[in-house]
Amino acid sequence: MVMKGNVTTIRKCLKKKLDPFRYEHTLGVAYTAMCLAMKYGEDLYKAEMAGLLHDCAKCYPDDVKLAKCEKYNISITEVERRNPSLVHAKLGAFLAMNKYGVTDMDIIDAILNHTTGKPAMTRLEKIIFVADYIEPRRNKAPNLDMIRRLAFEDLDQATCVILKSTLNYLKTREEAIDEMTLRAYEFYEKEWKKEKGNESVESVTENGEAGL
Ligand code: DGI
Ligand code: FE
Ligand code: FE
């Protein structure tokens, strides 16, 4: 077990476990999450820890991810079995708790829900979900400039646009869509409509999918 809550120690360990691109992304998410935390009054330490650890299980090969889930009794859905890359969120939350010594459930939940999102996310969950998409090293998604601005104006609307872009991307690639991704979008689309009436989410995401 890594020394509890020590950012420097956790970083050293992550540098060994992740490839260089993923490590850079990880630092980007941690810093972006802290910026969003400053804007929205979230705890900076929680944002940093969740950002640092959100992809800690990302770089294991798919079969190793599934084997580790079996070993630790982490249950896998049908969609996850067909798309083992989705599993890094669950496995990452488990490792954050059991290997990196995180006890704060806000941090664990933010790691757990960072890939699909879910309805009615906490502020920290939304911060990590959004930071994952907009961090400076991420550059493939369309409309990133707009989404980056929106993230610092309205966290719920940014969450909604990112979910929509992700769904568009998954549809064009004919990938299985996790029930939770859909439910999350439906929830945030309702919130969007309450706020923006007839202006559709598509009007913001219209020119394309999220090339992740
Ligand atoms: O781990 P990252 O690449 O930093 O980001 P992430 O954890 O958000 O994972 C991104 C990938 O997850 C991206 O390729 C889209 C995919 N994803 C999100 N929701 C779903 C999904 N993939 C499938 N098959 N189904 C989903 O519902
Ligand atoms: Fe991830
Ligand atoms: Fe990530």
Distance between the termini: 32 Å
Q: Helicity, in percent?
A: 55-70%
Strand content: under 5%
Q: Spans of 5+ residues with little confidence (pLDDT < 50)? A: 208-212
Number of strands: 0
Radius of gyration, taken over Cα atoms and rounded to an integer in Å: 16 Å
Write a structural description.
The chain is mainly α. The chain contains twelve helices and no strands. It has helices spanning 7-17, 20-40, 44-53, 62-71, 78-82, 88-98, 105-112, 123-134, 144-151, 155-172, 179-196, 202-205. α8 (123-134) packs across α10 (155-172). Bound molecules: 2'-deoxyguanosine-5'-diphosphate and fe (iii) ion (FE) (2 copies). One fe (iii) ion (FE) binds at residues 25, 29, 54-55, 132.
Write the topology of this structure.
Elements: H1 7-17, H2 20-40, H3 44-53, H4 62-71, H5 78-82, H6 88-98, H7 105-112, H8 123-134, H9 144-151, H10 155-172, H11 179-196, H12 202-205
Helix pairs in contact: 1-3, 2-3, 2-8, 3-7, 3-8, 6-7, 7-8, 8-10, 9-10, 10-11
Protein traits:
212 residues, mainly alpha, 12 helices, globular, disordered C terminus, binds 2'-deoxyguanosine-5'-diphosphate, binds fe (iii) ion
Short overview:
By secondary structure, the chain is mainly α. It has helices at residues 7-17, 20-40, 44-53, 62-71, 78-82, 88-98, 105-112, 123-134, 144-151, 155-172, 179-196, 202-205.
